[in-house]
Structure formats: structure tokens, C-alpha cells
Design goal:
This protein is mainly alpha-helical and 617 residues long. It has 29 helices and no strands.
Length: 617
């Protein structure tokens, strides 16, 4: 019974340490994608009946991510005044993910198929906790925890890992029970029917957790690959279920690949239009990027984790030295994987976890939160490394190695976590770490604007213009700066020329929206309505800029300018087109208010019902 008490104690301490050591760095507030994703929570505060409408109307992914939105919606009373509460909930989920990693590592040690190393049952929780804590406090995971909207990623991993862990545990229990029945340790009873029902229950449980994981974030589908990877490579296959599981796995892999290719090929072809890289360039560059992700885990340096990685140089050719070096590196890794089962398991987990976001889907090239799930396999490898040191050289050398790693890990964790504790820290630390990043110059410029250091802000915005020749963000930032600083110069003709060759940038909509917000508050009278309308039209002429969701968002911006000019018919036309384009039901509230004012309640209600039908079509 002692091992159970040890396991419970270790589990409690894991939860406590993760929460306690992340808590001091809460306070950075809502940033980046937090605002567009969480703004609908304000509707629940004004009308509680809209709870499920908000949950089901998110458009941040193909599924709408309703599971994540449900957990966000439970905190509607904290929006937008208490971002720290949102961050602490993220920390709490991360703590439970750490616990799941620990228990899955313990299962792998108990099964003993990955390595010939073995320790006592009382030592398994301790070594598992060591490996999982290094994963929990990895500097690269900080952004996944303290960036509020990344709760989607945290929840997806939570449900997916829960499913994998419970399935392998249930299969382990079923195998033991089968062995007891066959050896008459206890009366056998109806063996086959009971075992068949157990198999069905296991499949049902995993299906439920998989659905929850996918509807938290789409990369939860990767657990369809991770579960059999654990089962076949690390677990002891159940003799009764093994053939059925093998057939089912092969069928699921074939079907999943077919569905993925069918669903993503057209999306990939169309989605690369706004990007500044092609599908071929993405695939070539990702070979090197994956090597970089791997190095980030084993040699974590705080200077690498500056959130934006828009300064990454693309790989254009098979003969690029970075591509050749990466291919040689992966060749060596695969050779080692073929020889050592444990390394094969960790490397396979890494590759499976990167199948979606690091392949053909036209997402941004690099984001560190993609390593959150992928590096769990290497935390298992790290755990086995600790055990090998302990068995080969004893506790003293193990304590020395762990101590050195703890100091190195702690310094880098502190530097990254400290940067997330405030906007000022983010802007200064990140821009200093990556001086070639246009986005970080923009962030630093925004900081200087808020501090009233307008000349320095203007210098940062002009650096964006120089360093990003296919971006209009530097010009729009100068335009917004005019609201606070009369001396700021917005070169309209240069902006028009740049707009013709500009790439898609989601932040374009955000900046224009902020300018309109300031005008509505009476804080930006220098920029008149007609001037903004002309700027919108210039941007919309570029199909790269006016692509995807930007089309609907430009219509919303135009509608707001129409409303300000008291042209309600123009407002209705733009907002109606935006509602149909974006399928965002919160837009209907604005339309209903205007229709109610113009035509009365009955006509307004009928109009909204008809518009809902159009949105569904």
C-alpha cells in the first residue's frame, strides 16, 4: 500500500508546485488573439440567455472549438476586468496536464517495454514527477500557459491525455483480469462476453475524450495516432484484443489520412494566397523548423521564446545549407531511433504531434506553443535518463546532474515567465531578443505610445516599414499615432504603393478598428471619416489583404463608418453582408437595434429571423 500513498503525495505536490511557481507571473493581461476570441463574453454579461449562442458561434477554427468556449463562457463575469483569473485557470489546467504526464510516465515505467531499466514501485512516482516537472517548467511552455486564449491548446491536451492514459490503464487491467481468469485465480465466469463488453466500454470512453479534445482545439485529432503509438510500442498488447485493435488502428489511420487530405488540399491551395510563402517553401522550411523545435526542448534559451517568429528566413531550395543540414540531422535521429526503442518512442511522439500544424496547412511558420504536446515524449526520455544515471552512478551523481539542470531550467523559465508578467516586459524583452521582427517593433512602438514617448514610437513604426517591405502595418501604426501625436506623418502616397504589394495581416483589421474606436470616443478628430473610408478601399483592392475573414471584417469597419455618418442604410447593407460572410451571430444585435429604430419591433424580428436563415445557408 505504500506505493499508493507515495503516488498520492507526489500528485498533490505536483499540483501545488506548478500552481505556486506560475502564480507570481500572472498579470500580463489580455493580448493578441485574446480580444477577438473573448469579446463575445460581454454578451453573456448583458443577457444570460446568450450563453450557448456565444459558446457555439466562435469561428477561430473549423470546429468552432465549443468546448474551449464553454470554459471561457463560465468566466464571463471576469471579462474584461480580471484577466489574471483567466490566466490562473490556465495554470490550474496546466498543473493537471503535468499530473497526467507524470502518471503516463509511471505507466510506461511499470510496463517496462521501452527500456530494460527498472526501479521499485515506490520510486516510480518520484522519477515520473521529476521528468514531468521539467516539462511543466520548460520555458517554451510558458506562452501556452500564460497566453489566455491558449486554453484551447491546454484543454485539448488535457482531454486527449486523459483518454490515452485511461485507455492504456483499462487495457492493462483487462489483461490482468484475463490472466487471472485463465489461471483460475478466481472463478472465470463468462469470459468472452464480458471481455467484449470491456473492449466496447474502452472504445466508447476514448471516443468521448477524443471528441472533447478535438472540439477544444482541432489538433486533438492527433491522439488518434498517439494512442496506438503508446499501445503498440510501450504497452503490453492484450492477447484477446490485439488483433481487433490492430485492424481498427489501421482502418482509422487510412480513413483519417483520406479525410485530412480531402479536407485540407483545397484549403491549403487557397490559403497560401495571402501568405508570403508557397506550399513548397513551407515544406522545405519546416524540415529545418522541426529541428529548431527539438533543439528548443533540449537546450532551452530564453532568447528563443519571444512569441513572434516572423523573422525566420525561408528555405527556398533543396540545396540550401539549412535544409541539407536538417536532412542530415533527421537521418541521424532516425538511425538512433531504429536502434533504441525508447528514443524511437519519443521521436515518434514528437513527429505525430507536429503532423497538423507543421505540414501543409497554411498557418504561420513558427509558434512555440506547437511544442506543448510534442515535447511530452522527450520528458519521458528525460525521466529514463535520470533512472539510468541513478542505476549506473548512484544518487549523488543524479542529484548533481538534476541540480545543474534545475538551475539552468529555472533561470530560463524565470526570464520567459517574467516577460509575460506585464505588457512592458513583453515589449522590451521580446524586441531585444529578436531585433529583426517587425511585429515586435510594433509592440514596442505601442508601449512607447502608451507611455507618451511619441518620437520613439514613431521611430519603431518606421523600422517596420523598412524591415517589412510587404507589410502596411508600419504605415497604419503611424496613422493611429496621429490620434495622439500631431507631428506624426502618414505618407498616404507611399501607403497606396505599398498596399498594392502587401501580404495578408490579421493585425491590419485590429489597428483600423482601434482608430475607429478612438474616433467614436472623440479622441481622434484629426482623421476624418472620408479619409478612413479611402484607406479601407485602397486595402480592399489587394486580394491578398482582403482575403479570408478579412473580407467580412472590412465590411464591419465600413459599416461602423456608415453609422458614424448617420447613413443607416449603408450600415445595414455592410453589417448584413458581414453577418453572412462571417456567420457571427453577435452582429445581429447591432442590426436588430437599427431595424428596431427604423421599422419597429415586428419588422425587426422578422428581418433577423430571415437573416439567420441566410447565415445557415
Amino acid at each position: 500500500m505504500l506505493d499508493k500513498y507515495v503516488s498520492l503525495t507526489v500528485s498533490f505536490l505536483l499540483l501545488f508546485f506548478v500552481c505556486a511557481f506560475y502564480y507570481p507571473y500572472i498579470g500580463g493581461g489580455f493580448v493578441f488573439d485574446d480580444i477577438p476570441n473573448l469579446t463575445p463574453l460581454g454578451q453573456i454579461a448583458s443577457d444570460g440567455e446568450k450563453f450557448w449562442q456565444v459558446v457555439l458561434s466562435n469561428n477561430s477554427g473549423p470546429t468552432g472549438r465549443p468546448v474551449s468556449m464553454f470554459f471561457f463562457a463560465l468566466q464571463y463575469s471576469d471579462w474584461p476586468t480580471n484577466p489574471s483569473v483567466f490566466q490562473f485557470v490556465n495554470v490550474f489546467i496546466h498543473a493537471f496536464n503535468t499530473l497526467l504526464v507524470c502518471h503516463l510516465c509511471g505507466f510506461l515505467l511499470e510496463e517496462g517495454r521501452l527500456s530494460g531499466l527498472s526501479v521499485s514501485k515506490n520510486q516510480i512516482p518520484l522519477f515520473s514527477a521529476m521528468g514531468s516537472l521539467f516539462w511543466a517548467f520548460h520555458p517554451g511552455n510558458v506562452s501556452s500557459v500564460l497566453y489566455v486564449v491558449q486554453r484551447m491548446n491546454l484543454l485539448s491536451v488535457f482531454f486527449g491525455l486523459s483518454g490515452v492514459l485511461m485507455v492504456v490503464k483499462l487495457l492493462q487491467w483487462a489483461r490482468v483480469r484475463r490472466y487471472n481468469q485463465l489461471t483460475n485465480v478466481f472463478p472465470a465466469g463468462p469470459v468472452v462476453p464480458r471481455d467484449f463488453l470491456t473492449f466496447i466500454y474502452i472504445l466508447f470512453f476514448f471516443a468521448v475524450t477524443l471528441i472533447l479534445s478535438v472540439f477544444a482545439k482541432e489538433n486533438g485529432i492527433l491522439f488518434l495516432g498517439l494512442l496506438p503509438w503508446v499501445y503498440f510500442l510501450a504497452g503490453n498488447p492484450h492477447p484477446l484484443y490485439h488483433k481487433n485493435i490492430l485492424r481498427l488502428t489501421l482502418a482509422l489511420v487510412v480513413v483519417s489520412c483520406f479525410v485530412f487530405l480531402a479536407a485540407s488540399i483545397s484549403f491549403a491551395i487557397d490559403g497560401y494566397g495571402p501568405r508570403d510563402f508557397t506550399l513548397a517553401e513551407r515544406c522545405l522550411t519546416q524540415v529545418w523548423v522541426l529541428m529548431r523545435y527539438l533543439s528548443w526542448f533540449w537546450l532551452p534559451s530564453y532568447s528563443n521564446f519571444h512569441f513572434f517568429h516572423d523573422d525566420v528566413a525561408l528555405v527556398y531550395s533543396l540545396f540550401d545549407e539549412r535544409f541539407i543540414g536538417a536532412v542530415c540531422f533527421w537521418g541521424a535521429m532516425l538511425y538512433i531511433a531504429c536502434r533504441f526503442r525508447l528514443f524511437r518512442f519519443a521521436l515518434g511522439w514528437f513527429f505525430i504531434s507536429h503532423l497538423l500544424e507543421s505540414t501543409i496547412i497554411p498557418l504561420e511558420m513558427v509558434f512555440e506553443h506547437r511544442n506543448y504536446l510534442a515535447t511530452i515524449g522527450f520528458s519521458f526520455l528525460l525521466t529514463y535518463g535520470f533512472i539510468w544515471l541513478y542505476l549506473r552512478w548512484g544518487a549523488k551523481l543524479l542529484a548533481l546532474v538534476v541540480g545543474v539542470l534545475c538551475v539552468y531550467w529555472a533561470i530560463n523559465f524565470y526570464m520567459v515567465a517574467q516577460s509575460w508578467s506585464s505588457r512592458e516586459n513583453m515589449a522590451i524583452f521580446w524586441s531585444d531578443s529578436s531585433p529583426q521582427s517587425p511585429r515586435l517593433h510594433g509592440m514596442k512602438g505601442d508601449l512607447y505610445t502608451n507611455l507618451g514617448r511619441y518620437e520613439e514610437a514613431e521611430q519603431e513604426y518606421r523600422k517596420i516599414i523598412l524591415k517589412a517591405p510587404d507589410s502596411v502595418m508600419g504605415y497604419l501604426a503611424l496613422l493611429e499615432l496621429q490620434c495622439s501625436y500631431d507631428s506624426a506623418v502618414f505618407p498616404f502616397e507611399d501607403f497606396v504603393a505599398r498596399s498594392k504589394v502587401a501580404k495578408y495581416e490579421a493585425s491590419v483589421i485590429n489597428v483600423l478598428g482601434e482608430i475607429i474606436d478612438l474616433r467614436e470616443e472623440g479622441l481622434c478628430k484629426k482623421i476624418d471619416n472620408g479619409y478612413l473610408w479611402a484607406i479601407l478601399k485602397v486595402l480592399q483592392e489587394n486580394p491578398n489583404v482582403n482575403a479570408g475573414r478579412a473580407t467580412g471584417n472590412f465590411l464591419l469597419l465600413e459599416g461602423r463608418l456608415c453609422f458614424e455618418a448617420e447613413d443607416l442604410n449603408c450600415f445595414i447593407q455592410r453589417f448584413e453582408a458581414a453577418a453572412i460572410e462571417l456567420k457571427h451571430y453577435s452582429i445581429l444585435d447591432n442590426l436588430y437595434s437599427v431595424y428596431l429604430q427604423l421599422y419597429g419591433k415586428e419588422t425587426a424580428q422578422l428581418y433577423i429571423e430571415q437573416l439567420k436563415l441566410k447565415m445557415k445557408e
